[in-house]
Specification:
With 129 residues, this protein is an alpha/beta fold. The chain has a single domain (14-127), classed as Rossmann fold, CATH 3.40.50. The chain contains 4 helices and 5 strands. α1 (22-30) packs across α4 (103-115) and α2 (49-58) packs across α3.
């Protein structure tokens, strides 16, 4: 994938959990990132979390979610069972509250995370700062 002008090669592909606006994914795609939004995909909307984890793993995507209580245990179970489990980018709803007026903040934070130079050494579960 071509990276945004002047930036290092971006290798992370993201899948935004259903509670995030598709505007976030659209804006990041316009900036050269590979980001999909569950809320914008009729085949993904309403799917159980375990199914999203499997689909994201098969597509080599990291799931962006604030739903820590469900996604963390489900990915751990999938790994323990030897199934594919997506990597997670966990989001604090206190730091990044949802709402149309906060979309810009989320876009900036995700773009900054995607371009961070430590990308090659990332773990399977990270927090968006």
């Amino acid at each position: 994938m071509a990276s945004p002008a002047g930036s290092p090669l971006v290798t992370e592909q993201l899948l935004l959990d259903e509670h995030y606006s598709p505007v976030i994914a659209k804006t990041l795609r316009e900036r050269g990132f590979d980001v999909r939004a569950v809320s914008a995909d009729a085949d993904l909307r309403g799917q159980p979390d375990a199914r999203l984890i499997a689909l994201a793993a098969a597509d080599d995507r990291r799931i962006v979610t604030e739903n820590v209580k469900d996604f963390v245990p489900l990915t751990e179970i999938a790994r323990a069972d030897g199934q594919g489990a997506a990597r997670l980018l966990l989001v604090s709803p206190r730091r990044f509250p949802r709402g149309n007026e906060r979309i810009g903040l989320m876009i900036i934070a995700l773009e900054t995370w995607l371009l961070h130079p430590t990308a090659p050494s990332r773990t399977d579960q990270e927090w968006l700062a």
